[in-house]
Every structure is written in C-alpha cells, then in structure tokens.
Amino acid sequence: MNKTIFPIRVAFIALCAATGWLVCYTIREWDDYRVLATFIGLSIGVLVVLVDLLLKGFSLRGLSALTFGLGMGAVISYLIGTSPLFIEGDAQVLYLTRLALFLIVTYLCTVIALRGKDEFNLVIPYVRFVPQEVDSPVVVVDTSALIDGRIARICESGFLSGALIIPRFVLEELQRVADSADTGKQARGRRGLEVLSALRRLKQLDLRIHESEARAEEVDAKIVFLAQSMKAKLLTTDYNLAKMAEFHGVPWLNLNTLAKSLRRELLSGEPIEVDLVKTGREDHQGVGYLDDGSMVVVEQARSLVGTRVMAEVTSILPSAGGKMVFARLVGPTD
After folding, report:
1. So what CATH class is 138-261?
2. Residue 295: other Cβ atoms inside 10 A
3. Neighbouring residues of 286: CB distance < 8 A, sequence distance ≥ 6
4. Per-domain residue ranges of the chain
5. Which of 38, 42, 178, 181 is the most exposed place for a label (fewest CB within 10 A)?
6. ∠ CA 20-26-27 to the nearest 5 degrees?
7. What is the C-alpha separation between 11 and 8, in angstroms, rounded?
8. How high is the pLDDT of residue 195?
9. pLDDT given at position 283
10. Where are the beta strands (DSSP E) in the chain?
C-alpha cells in the first residue's frame, strides 16, 4: 500500500510545483517571480501531503460521520438563521450572529457525529455484495485468541473462512501486555504479536484492522459491542468474555471446544504412531504421548525410547488426566 501511495505523493508535489511555474506564463506580470511561484506551488503540495499523513488513522466511517455532522450543522444553522428571530435588527449584528451560529452549530454537530460514529453506519464496512441468503462471515478476534497461538495454525490450514477483524484497541492492549514489567505477561504479549505477524503473512487470509473506537471503557465491553454492531462472530478463549457475548446475543467461537472436538477416538486393534520419550514402570515398556496429551504405553519397546514407533492399540483405560492407551509394538517407523 505504501509503495503505491509514495510515488503518487511525489507526483502530486511535482505537479503542484509545475503548476506554480506554468501560472507565470498566463500572467505576464509574474514573469519575474517564476522561482517564487514554483516554491509556493511546491509548498502547497508538501502541506497537502502532510495533512494526508496526519489523517492516516482517519477511517471511512469517520469521514461519513464528519460529512453527516457538517451537513446537519449547516442545515440547522440555516433554519435558525432564516427564522423570524433574525428578521429585524442591525444588518451587521445579524450577519455576525448568523456567522457565529453557523460555526458553533456546525462544530457541535460534527463532534457529536464523530463521537457516535459506531452507532450509525452511512458507509457500512466489511459487508460484501452477495446474493440473498448467502452469508459473508466476519469474525472479531480478541486478545486471548491471539496470545493462545492456535489461531495461526487453524487459519493456515484453511479451516477458518471469512474475514478476521482485529480492533485497534485489541492491538493496543496486546502491546501493553508485551511492554509489561511482569516477565510472564511480557512473554504472552510478545507471543500474541508474533501470532499477529504470522497471520499477516498468510496470503489467503482476509485480515483487517478495525480503526473505530467504541465508547465503553473496558476492552471486553468494547469488543462485544463491536461484534454486535457488525453482526459478527467472536473468537476467544476467555470464558467470561464468551458468556458476556452470549448474553448479548453474539455468537462466539471457542478454540478449546474446537480442540476437544478434534481429539482422535481410538479403538482396539487400531495402528498408531507415537514418539517414545521415556521408559515405563515395567522394564520392557516405552512411554509416549499423543497430540491430545493421552499417555501411550508400548510393550517391548524399552530399547526404542527416543524414536518413533508403530504400535497397535490393545486396550484403553480412562484416567484422571485423560486416557491411558496400552499398545503392542509393531516396529519402528521408516
């Protein structure tokens, strides 16, 4: 994006300077001031580009709210200025009063519109023109989902479709956590920033940063309000936030629930591959773990600890920590 805008800005500044130079050809009296006119044109171009840079964080929704506020302020001031209140009186006083009325009312309407820009949408973001009865899913991501880290692998696999919306205040909270003096919080925040960078690198992922701010003070209330106003789903691992979203009628996606639903159901006689990491209680046993944390005890595999083996499930026992799987050795993997 910046690589595209930069040459446009340079061309605009050069065009302004050239315009100042060419103006002198139309006005003969200015022939001696061509250098000055070129400098003035160049300065105007630079000033416009600086204003453009200052408006970098100004969103399209903010622009629509600003336009609405200016229009309403102008209409209200016009109606008051043409009312019977201003029929008689000194012309100069009436002019100054109407001018002050226009400036004050327009300013107030503009400020009110900008403060409430999330409560109305003249330009509705993240809504695509699709056929009727076809959903265009939008998912709002909170801080806990980014810190969790699994969202990057899920998006890389292609299972999570739709646009991912990350609010600006979530990024700010993530940055505060990464800058914390607590080493634990700092590590979690940095992992969240690394996950965000990984998401940005996924070309097939539609990742968007939402610039607008909700009026609520707490981050949880802000993100629920944003998801509700955008009719989006909320992706989180925070149980309390999920329950708050459920109370407000916002559908939510829980990565922990997804992980539980993807756990493999093993049956006796089924072959499995497992990395043996230590010896078992018996001298001939080797122990490994499945992806879901289940312990696998392989008979006659003590000498193969530290390698990946193929085994066949013989029995499965429930335990306090999950499942304990007993298997017999088939052989090492290739």
Report:
1. alpha beta
2. 18
3. 276, 278, 279, 280, 297, 298, 301, 302, 304, 305, 309, 329
4. 2-115, 138-261, 271-332
5. 181
6. 90
7. 5
8. 87
9. 79
10. 138-141, 163-167, 206-210, 233-236, 252-254, 271-279, 286-289, 295-299, 308-319, 322-332
The neighbouring-strand residues paired with 210 are 167
Average pLDDT per consecutive 10 residues, the chain (334 residues; last block may be shorter): 72 85 76 81 87 73 79 88 80 83 86 68 43 59 86 79 82 86 86 88 82 67 83 84 86 77 76 87 86 83 86 82 81 68
> What pLDDT sits at residue 1?
47
Span between the terminal Cα atoms of the chain, in Å: 48
- Which overall architecture, per CATH, does domain 271-332 show? Beta Barrel (2.40)
Query: How many residues are listed for the chain in this entry?
Result: 334
Domains 138-261 and 271-332 equal at CATH topology level? no
Q: What's the confidence (pLDDT) of residue 281? A: 85
Sheet holding 252-254, edge to edge: 206-210, 163-167, 138-141, 233-236, 252-254
pTM: 0.48
b/e per residue 251-282 (b: at least 16 CB within 10 A): ebbbbeeeeeeeeeebeeeeebebebeeebee
